[in-house]
Design goal:
186 residues, mainly alpha, 2 domains
């Protein structure tokens, strides 16, 4: 049922005379178009519902200023539009403040993270070199050759063995190194 302008005016008069419960009739009548207007602009459902409630609270408080010769729905939509604009201004400021805070945090933490990373890298490298020294001599020679950038053929020639044997030594050495590093990390 759609209220006529005369019915709307009568309800407004009753509300202004002190019968605030009559305002619920206006909320029922215009709630859907006002909320639809807001939801079409504000994608967050909870925020849109809050804005809808704020719109009707503002309308109730400002009802004495309403010109009853004008369409009530248009007046409500105008209030809703102002609420939506305020919402976007506030969320824009909030978003900007959040981004600024994140940037400041990143700047402050970046140096500390870099320092921790370097310390960790140095500690890991020291641990690796200690573990290499614990390897049997042939495995240690294969690992050192690989660290110098030599391929399996060069290491095989150096150790008087085959490339296949070098790859097996390297594989076993990698397992030993991994175990050694993991023990040192715990």
């Amino acid at each position: 049922m759609t209220m006529t302008q005369d019915e709307i005016t009568a309800v407004i008069r009753k509300v202004l005379a002190g019968n605030a419960t009559e305002f619920s009739r206006l909320v029922r009548e215009f709630g859907l178009p006002v909320r639809s207007f807001i939801h079409a602009r504000v994608r967050n459902a909870a925020d849109a519902e809050d804005l809808g409630q704020e719109c009707f609270i503002a309308a109730l408080r400002g009802l004495a200023k309403f010109d009853t010769s004008q369409p009530f729905e248009a007046w409500l939509i105008g209030i809703a539009r102002h609420r939506v604009l305020g919402y976007f201004r506030a969320t824009g400021r909030r978003h900007h403040a959040t981004e600024k805070f994140r940037e400041e945090c990143l700047v402050r933490v970046a140096n500390e993270l870099q320092q921790v990373e370097e310390e960790t890298r140095h500690a890991t490298l020291r641990r690796l070199m200690d573990c290499v020294e614990k390897l049997p001599e042939r495995m240690r020679q294969v690992i050192r050759a690989r660290l110098r950038g030599e391929d399996g053929s060069d290491a095989a020639t150096l150790l008087h063995t085959t490339r296949g044997a070098i790859y097996m030594l390297q594989l076993r050495a990698n397992v030993h190194l991994k175990d050694c590093i993991m023990k040192g990390a715990t």
